[in-house]
Amino acid sequence: MVPGWWDRPVKVLVGSNTTHHITRPSAAADLLLHDWPEFYGPAYERAKVAILKAMENPDDAWLNAASRSAFEEAAREAGILVSATSR
What we know:
The chain has helices at about 25-35, 40-55, 60-80; strands spanning about 10-15, 20. It is mainly α. The protein has one domain (about 10-80).
């Protein structure tokens, strides 16, 4: 895995029909700050913290994986996560 990139993308549906394939913490941060739906629950807050830590330490594989997990959970919480079986 390339440092600073996730091992697999997190797919989210933003807006009416726009699917984003988020592959790294910086892309997740951009989505959280600029295109997130108007739902900011606890998982959203945890994702912001985890993603910032991963961006500050791009060579830390554990922080990188934790940021992906936190972002996926925030997307699930907001109802925008596209499951692996969805088309």
